[in-house]
Write a structure and sequence with these properties.
Helix content: 40-55%
CATH class: Alpha Beta
Number of domains: 1
Number of helices: 9
Shape: globular
Length: 229
């Protein structure tokens, strides 16, 4: 398996906005916005960029991912593709992030190179326990932790306690997702998570030309909370 962040410290994962993005009805503008988002993430040394654009056809998605890989080459940022193992391999991505309906991680591991990252989304402690002994998985993303604008209909959340229970049940890195803000990052760190994944936090920061400030503040809040917990 591959380490998510060999240097240690908080793992930050930017997830692209997908069909909820502002340029979804303008294909060219959407691609340009995604390319710019990746370049910004690379410039600020965000660890993982998960390209989550499930509505795009394979060819268009592969072209976007290939440009992201080119932009991140030789940097600390690794490019992941949500669900589409075929696209990830064709475009030379660093890994794939799987959902509950994706191919099993062990099958993915059979057809990918040793350095390929394989992540998995989970939503409960039971799921985490079922996957705890799976050697094919490098990391988990657990959610939804907090209320999120992207899922206004959801009423059940893991919260810091549920997140902590998941972290205790596995031996691989767990990233939190869902409603992540600078105000609750410390509680994620105290729960034992290795970092977090976010859509809105980073997208809003990019829109306001504040990505560097947000990344710096997030790392500081996370590392400070972990140091004193």
């Amino acid at each position: 398996m591959t380490a998510v962040r060999p240097a240690g410290g908080a793992v930050l994962c930017l997830v692209t906005p997908g069909p909820a993005g502002p340029s979804v009805n303008a294909p060219r503008q959407r691609e340009e916005a995604l390319d710019a988002l990746v370049r910004d993430a690379v410039a600020e040394r965000i660890d993982l960029v998960q390209i989550r654009e499930p509505d795009l056809p394979a060819r268009q998605l592969a072209e976007i991912v290939a440009r992201a890989v080119q932009a991140s080459r030789g940097t600390a940022t690794r490019i992941l593709v949500n669900d589409r193992v075929d696209v990830a391999l064709a475009a030379g991505a660093d890994g794939v992030h799987l959902g509950t309906r994706s191919l099993p991680a062990r099958r993915v591991r059979e057809i990918t190179p040793p350095s390929f990252l394989v992540g998995r989304s989970i939503h409960s402690g039971e799921e985490a326990r079922d996957l705890a002994a799976d050697p094919a998985i490098d990391y988990l993303i657990a959610g939804t932790v907090f209320p999120s604008r992207s899922k206004p209909e959801q009423s059940h959340f893991l919260g810091p306690d549920g997140l902590a229970a998941i972290v205790r049940s596995v031996r691989i890195p767990v990233l939190a997702i869902g409603g992540i803000s600078l105000d609750n990052i410390a509680s994620i760190a105290r729960a034992g998570a290795s970092g977090f994944a976010a859509i809105r936090l980073f997208a809003d920061a990019v829109a306001g030309s504040r990505l560097r400030d947000v990344v710096t503040a997030a790392r500081k809040a996370f590392d400070t909370a972990r140091a004193i917990s």
